[in-house]
Amino acid sequence: xxxxxxxxxxxxxxxxxxxxxxxxxxxxxxxxxxxxxxxxxxxxxxxxxxxxxxxxxxxxxxxxxxxxxxxxxxxxxxxxxxxxxxxxxxxxxxxxxxxxxxxxxxxxxxxxxxxxxxxxxxx
Length: 123
Known about the structure:
Elements lengths: L1 E6 L3 H14 L3 E7 H7 L7 E7 L1 H10 L9 E8 L2 E7 L1 H6 L5 H18 L1
Antiparallel strand pairs: 1-5, 2-3, 3-4, 4-5
């Protein structure tokens, strides 16, 4: 199930705190998608809209050792968006992402990490 949490911070502060939290929890930011910026370049206007894609090579290696086809799933996304004057952070629990593969052990580790990343960033 998707996790949706309201941030008490403004959009840019939320992004900054999430970036710091991702890195402090020993994850890597694999890519960033700034939809607001991309849409502005195309002549459209929306509120803040940003995605962090995060993962770590050792987790990828362990997943690949179990089933290379799980490579379709990482990196995992943390989505930050503005709606109705509020800032939200949304992500799927890793255990949900990997459940279709029957993967439980690594999923539990990643659940804790991603819950901590978001929880620490929003406190």
